[in-house]
Write the structure tokens for this entry.
Amino acid sequence: MATSLPDQNCEIVAEPLTDALANQWRHAKNSDNTAFASSSLTVYKGADFAKRDIARQRDALRQCPSESETNGKRQWDNVHEAKIPALKGFDDVVAEEGHLGTDEKGQKVDTYYVSLTGSRGQYVLNSTISRGPDTQEQNRTDTTNALSLMLSRLASR
């Protein structure tokens, strides 16, 4: 089990999910390949570990306004913490927004994303959506709805 976070040089690296009991990812796209989404659930040994995960994500977000993969092909810019309305039921939420300017093949792209990560007790939930230009408001709405739905499903178990 691993998570991806920027290192001290703002290069995205995989880090092991220490103290995690389970992690599940799901990726989806629409039929015309204009919207991409992912979601994840990580279950930690306890709430303190989940809080640490959220704090690490927030710290990384604040120190890297530009990020790249170690091969240098995929590059993000204007990465920043976003303001979102309070999400009910979460202990903490971190919201990230940014722009993907170069894809995994090194080709120029113009894709905007929103990523919301919320913790509740020992659980950390994430929803990320990316689309083309002028979509951030819809991305915010969709990630907020997805994260809220994930929490409601978790709470109903």
Q: What stands out?
A: The first strand starts at residue 2 and ends at 6. Residues 102 and 141 are 25 Å apart (CA to CA).
